[in-house]
Amino acid sequence: YAASKNKYVSFLTNGLLIDDEWAAKIARSSRSICFSVNAATKTTHELVNRGSSWEKVLQNIHKVRKAKAIMASDLQIAGHMTIVPQNIQEIPLFIKSYHQLGFEYINFGYDLRMPAYLRHHPHLKEQTSLKIGRALVSLRNRSSVNDHALIKLGLIDYQDRAKKKAAPCKNRSTG
Question: H or E element: which one contains 133?
């Protein structure tokens, strides 16, 4: 409906229900789509997103990328990870592999229980923080990572963030 009124829309999706027709509509009439995959691996994705299929989501991301290329669309394709205890250790891998997953940029949110969880697991927080720092350093284009949620959780240092430009995707929520 919005496209018929010359309105552009943006999507946040789990990516399961996108077929070729929807991929074309999204590429034609959207400014951005954000796939909430919440993981960097099949095992964790399917644990955190019960009832999902990692392969199906990756296929659907590919469908959108293909439609974007065919239409020469300026659609921005993002990946999202809502941080929960079950996926926190995959943050560095998500940062390193976002491009291979089909994303142009990534952002993070977090379950509201995560600050308390990290306070109770300081060693995990410290180790994850070090790995995230190494993953960020390894990137060619660090501005493709919206790290606001990582800063809020204390997983990266705010001063470290000042060394990079802000990513194009604004994190509108924490979850």
Answer: helix 122-137
Residues 6 or more apart in contact with residue 102 via CB below 8 angstroms: 58, 61, 62, 64, 65, 77, 79
Question: What's the CA gap between 130 and 165, in Å, rounded?
Answer: 20
Alpha helix stretches (DSSP H) within 80-121: 91-101, 114-120
Q: Based on the number of CB atoms within 10 Å of its own CB, is 67 exposed (0-12), middle (13-18) or buried (19 or more)?
A: buried
Please, what is the angle between helix 122-137 and helix 91-101, to 10°?
Answer: 30
> Is 0.85 topped by the overall pTM?
yes
- Alpha carbon distance 107, 125 (integer Å): 19
Rg of the chain (C-alpha set): 16
Q: Under DSSP, is residue 82 helix (H, G, I), strand (E, B) or coil?
A: strand
CB 75 within 8 A of CB 31: yes
Contact 64, 18 (CB under 8 A): yes
Please tell me whether residue 33 adopts helix, strand or coil conformation. Answer: strand
Q: What is the pLDDT of residues 46-79, one digit of tens each?
A: 999 999 999 999 999 999 999 999 999 999 999 9
Cβ contact 101:75 at 8 Å? no
